[in-house]
Amino acid sequence: MKTQIIKYKTGLLAMGLCLFLLLFTGCSKDKDPTEGGQTEQNIVGKWNLEKYVNQLIPGETDTYIGKSGEWAEFKKDGTGAQRWDNGDGRFDLEPFTWKVKDNKLIFKEDDDEEEEAFTIVKLTDQELVFKGEGMTKNGEGQTVKWVETYYLKK
Prior knowledge:
This protein is α+β, with helices and mostly antiparallel strands. 19% of the residues lie in helices and 49% in strands. The chain has a single domain, classed as Lipocalin, CATH 2.40.128.280. The chain has 2 helices and 9 strands. The protein has an 8-stranded antiparallel barrel. A hairpin with a 6-residue loop joins strand 6 and strand 7.
């Protein structure tokens, strides 16, 4: 009889422990990827432009495939530079400053007074995707939504 009581109590204790573990480790709060500077640390480095997609909604979508030599570099001190083909086969180098706030990658080009904010869509050790969006007028004077998405890889 005493052995059955000990087995019963041991079983209850094991079930209680399992329930405790399920309650406190089964569900975790999703972390804000910008907490603790982790996102900024992951962005630092040189990224090659894979493609750029520009959409007008409603309207058309244009995709530009990145060329060899087109890149953006993000430095730890919040400065950076981008190198893009200017259309005539030469590359332009444009400096900028950057920061991350609330899952937004915020740029300010040195020759521009305004900051541009882009939502970070994907960030891994090897891939960075961010997009910006807003409203504009198309050629017919209609208000349309624009979305531009940048795909970069290390």
